[in-house]
Amino acid sequence: MLTNTFSAEDTPSNAAWTILDTEDQWQAFSKPIANQDIQSSQQLVQSDLLLDGLRCAACSGIIEQGLKSTPGIVSARVSMSKKRAVVVWSPSATLPSKILTAIHDLGYSAFPATQHEDDLASLQKQRAAFWRWMVSGFCMMQVMMYASPTYFTTPGEISSDILHLLNWASWLLSLPVLLFSSSAFFSNALRDLKQKQISMDLPVALGIIITFIVSSAATFDPSGWWGSTVYFDSLTMFVFFLLSARLVEVKLHRKTLGALDNLASRIPENTERQNPDGTFARVLNTKLKVGDIVRVQIGEAFPADGKIISGNTSVDESLLTGESTPIQKNLNDDVIAGSYNLRQPVCITLNTIGESTKYGQIVNLINNAAVEKPRLSKLADRVARPFLIFVMLSAAIAAALLWNIDHGRALMTAAAVLIVTCPCALSLATPAAMLASASAFVKRGILIKRIQAIENIADVDTIIFDKTGTLTEDHIQIKTIVTKAGLTESAALTLATAIAQHSMHPISRALVNAHKANDLPSPEIELNDIEETSGAGISATIKSGAADVSLLEHSAVGNELKLGSAIFCGIAETNTSTQQVYLANKQGWLATFTLQEAIKHNAALAIASLKEAKLAIELLSGDRSSAVENTANQIGITQFQSACSPEDKLLRLQALKREGKKVLMVGDGLNDGPILASAHVSIAMGKGVPLTLAHADYVFLNGDISQIPHLIRHAKQTMRIIKENIAWAIVYNLISIPLAFFGILSAWLAGLGMAVSSLIVVANALRLTKFASSETDTHS
Amino acid sequence: MDILFVLIPLSVIMALVVLGGLWWAIYRGQFEDIEDEGKRILEDDD
């Protein structure tokens, strides 16, 4: 009996996969390829699949071998790092749903990786970016080689012929860096100029051009008034550093998007619709019309709002209402789109579809809230404008003052000011620190959607939590067991499990789980006449008793067992403030199980340390008041509000915003979507609804909320380091500009200063790659 | 030190040749999947 129960749970919604078997469906993630086997002329198809559940390199081997031994599959290649499989199969011998089933049977899950039209274009872009970086890096190394003799010798020690030749070689290898690698800076600066904006790219582009012109002049005419010093080494290093930062940024971004792709990638939503002849066929939900009759299987979501016309069941509406207890639905009851059918297949007629359903309205609310989110100013760009104006003014003043004395010297001094102030350090200050932090987060299972969200989370003062799935696990737990004299707790649990394992009700599953967790022996009781009364309980007659002595007395053949509410079991209710379930037989009461939502084990700790950091904490939940109050009391939250609709939550958030609070929203379900999207900064749990994840700034892949205090602390440290970096860059410029102005700073010293200032900024930022709280780290 | 007049131009040419090699490697997709190919060699192939 046990195996039956569990296999029912394990069996995936295989039926839903068959929607992929039509050609227009699998074309979305497949393409035909030429058959390399000359002997057979059958058409082959190559499909991309996203994989879930990969843990190590051996997994990829298992999947490859398993797929190759499946009939109809010609070859399979699994990439561990991309979590993708490329499968070549023959449409005449197999079908996509069979491939997915084969992978599922191996213990992994797979989803079709829908091809985006821009996939190929993005690959080309990625390669081009890598190639630009490679060119700048390699040329930098070579230019450094040519420049190094001048570092170690006194002027005049190298003959001018050789020096000239070295400069020539440097110039030649700097050309690709200038013309090819740094082209993005020039085009960005031009674009910003056209839009009358000043960003960090403008001083960067100016610095590169002026450094190159002055160095080129020195190369071709060493005796001219430009002087004979070249800065090709500084130039190439600067470009290499900037491109490195951008490459890392793109890589992190792709990693985050890739993980979200995995979460959001699902089988296209489809439902069984009744044909005119009474049979059912699967169609895409987008093809449903008002008035259609559809059959919704157990575990499937209702595709639209409608009315039940045959069967009765219980549904889970927690995605929309936050209410985690299943709701009983009988004939003629209304069901809402996005809720899940839990107990029995039912037929419904559709009343409202698409955007006019409540589900559709919430989706719209999320999208609108996301659009309204104000764009964040970047710290470095704020500094760029005054910096640029200051530098240009100094250069212009220097030139103007010296113009009447000596034209040549005037231009040279202006150029020296511009070279010395080359904005390397300033432009590296923010990205280097933020990227170092972001990579530290990724290692802890925290994904950042927008890198600027680090700036936001550093200054939050209020945190709003959702309950279900965020502070609590999303399943019910057995808290205490009270038994009749003579019956042990474990015996009561075993007895309850014997009957509970025949039900899919969340409470029954909680009992079975508790039984399993306590390592108790399997019940060995066979039951007859199992009957589940929805909303009340489950009853059965004992067909054969247990072998266990402790159970013998209570499992006599022919005796009746009842599990359910007090009324159902025919006994008096003892305590109404908590959720309870009773076990009884013909003779009467046997045991009482008190239930509670399982609070995440580290929730109280996380809340305590957030309070210590002087953050205001609120709990807004859609659940009923007693459950919310219980949870809040247990983990130490004093401010809470229950039975909140998504609109209520949004109102509360807007009220806080008006008070000038910076709110961090931590949520999970679909009903949190709108508030996640419009909060100052937001965190979503990785097990949440894909739509919610898409609108959060951070995604916690392992749902561990004890990371939040560390995250905030680390973000604060990041902002501190960014400010240090910017302060350092400004101080460096304030010292060097007057020196260049009066011609005191010799050229090589200016070059060295530029290089060192960049290196200091990068080194300072690298301190952030270790998560701030490594001493409390128990996962890693 | 006259040899430098040959060696320095030669080094520029060498650098350009290496860059050409890198270009070939990048656009052949050699850097796209660095981790898996290294592990694949350890697996039994039948």
TrEMBL record, chain B:
Query: Please, which domain of life does this record's source organism belong to?
Result: Bacteria
Pfam families attached to this UniProt entry: FixS
Indicate the transmembrane segments per the record.
6-26
Entry keyword Transmembrane helix = yes
What keywords does the record list, in alphabetical order? Membrane, Transmembrane, Transmembrane helix
KW Ribosomal protein (keyword) present = no
NCBIfam families named in the record: ccoS (TIGR00847)
The protein, known as:
Cbb3-type cytochrome oxidase assembly protein CcoS
